[in-house]
Write a structure and sequence with these properties.
Strand content: 15-25%
EC number: 3.6.1.-
CATH class of one domain: Alpha Beta
Bound molecules: guanosine-5'-triphosphate, zinc ion
Enzyme class: hydrolase
Protein name: Small ribosomal subunit biogenesis GTPase RsgA
Order of helices and strands: HEEEEEEEEHEHEHEHHEEHHHHHH
Distance between the termini: 57 Å
Subunit structure: Monomer. Associates with 30S ribosomal subunit, binds 16S rRNA.
GO molecular function: GTP binding; GTPase activity; metal ion binding; rRNA binding
Number of helices: 12
Strand order of the largest sheet: 10-9-8-11-13-12
Oligomer: single chain
């Protein structure tokens, strides 16, 4: 028996469960089948047909189980989404109900602040709280300096340095996670996400580059699950889809750049372009060194990207709506006696 609260607790869980069902948390989705963690172990389940109309259950979702059938997906607290390519494609939920997003970068170079900011914007957009994890601390001569540089840029975000080799900092990450809390990692390839997952799990749950190179046999096939229960509490979602995420909308940009947004709100003109306008609070902050111009430029770029993305999803939503109506017409035409009266009441 697992205490169900160790699988991550959704406060409204009981209220949301249909009668006669029990809760389970989706650890893995493959070819439509679910691996679900429940109070009495792991089981394989099928999603009910009705659940597949949307994007279907995602890793981290709570589902209501009736036997081996998942009959409902419980309301999500947070969701990491990405846009799926295709004609009428919508957003796909990559991981649900995350509490934390570990924004991972390596200390092998000076902190790449612009990149961290971008990931922070994506993370804030999901509804989860980001934490910056700087890996490979054992390879860095000035860990305090790097921590300070990131902390000064990412105000209000916890920043920790870790080494999967020496174990330094792992306890700090565990403490942030805590029992029943769910985290996922985002960050570019090679920064040490798999190594961190393995170090936190205390066993090989993800293939690292090192291992792959050493035996050359694709140990990545040993990755059994995507939602890992960590010893000492905490859950770690490690899905390939989590790792490289684009910006879906601007929900997180304003939070990641709260300082810049705040300045912009103080410009004399509402539609200030922050170029040559009199009374521009942004320009003033850049002039007297309170705002790094590179940070400002990065904000502009991300805003523009989020805007383009929003236009694209509008277009996608329209296309999906048109396809839905066309399908409706087709199905009415195939029922000659009913279609006409329903379409033209
Ligand atoms: N010295 C040192 N090397 C590390 C550390 N963490 C990871 N590495 C090495 O960095 C390389 C990449 O690590 P991975 O864990 O595979 O990186 P990843 O972020 O999972 O990469 P992808 O799977 O491509 O996303 C491997 O050779 C690791 O052995 C660390 O803390 N210290
Ligand atoms: Zn301005």
């Amino acid at each position: 028996m697992t205490d169900i609260s160790l699988l991550g607790w959704v406060r409204a869980l009981d209220a949301d469960l249909p009668p006669g069902t029990r809760p389970g948390r989706v650890a893995r989705v493959d070819r439509g089948r679910l691996t679900v963690l429940t109070g009495d172990g792991e089981l394989r389940a099928h999603p009910a047909a009705a659940l597949l109309e949307g994007s279907g259950p995602a890793v981290g979702d709570w589902v209501a189980l009736r036997g081996e059938l998942a009959v409902a997906v419980l309301p999500r607290r947070t969701a990491f989404t990405r846009v799926v390519a295709g004609r009428t494609s919508a957003e796909q939920v990559v991981a649900a109900n995350l509490d934390l997003v570990l924004v991972v970068d390596a200390l092998t170079t000076a902190p790449r602040l612009r990149r961290v900011e971008r990931y922070l914007a994506v993370a804030w957009g999901s509804g989860a709280t980001p934490v910056v994890v700087l890996t490979k601390a054992d390879l860095c001569d000035d860990v305090p300096g790097a921590l300070l540089a990131v902390a000064e840029d990412a105000v209000g975000v916890d920043v920790v340095a870790v080494s999967s080799v020496t174990g330094e900092g792992l306890d700090a990450v565990r403490a942030l996670l805590g029992p029943g809390r769910t985290a996922a990692m985002v960050g570019p390839s090679g920064v040490g996400k798999s190594s961190l997952a393995n170090a936190l799990a205390g066993t090989v749950v993800a293939a690292t580059h090192g291992i792959r190179e050493a035996d050359g046999r694709g140990r990545h096939t040993t990755t059994a699950r995507e939602l890992h229960l960590l010893p000492g509490g905490g859950l770690l979602v490690d899905t390939p889809g989590m790792r490289e995420l684009g910006l879906v909308d601007d929900a997180g940009v304003d939070t990641a750049y709260a300082d810049v947004t705040e300045l912009a709100a103080r410009c004399r003109f509402r539609d200030c372009a922050h170029r040559t306008e009199p009374g521009c609070a942004v320009a003033a902050a850049i002039d007297d060194g309170r705002l790094d111009p590179a940070r400002y430029t990065a904000w502009r770029k991300l805003q523009a990207e989020a805007h383009r993305q929003a236009l694209r999803s509008d277009a996608r939503a329209r296309a999906a709506e048109h396809a839905r109506v066309r399908a409706l017409h087709r199905s009415y035409r195939s029922q000659p006696n009913r279609g006409r009266t329903t379409l033209h009441p």
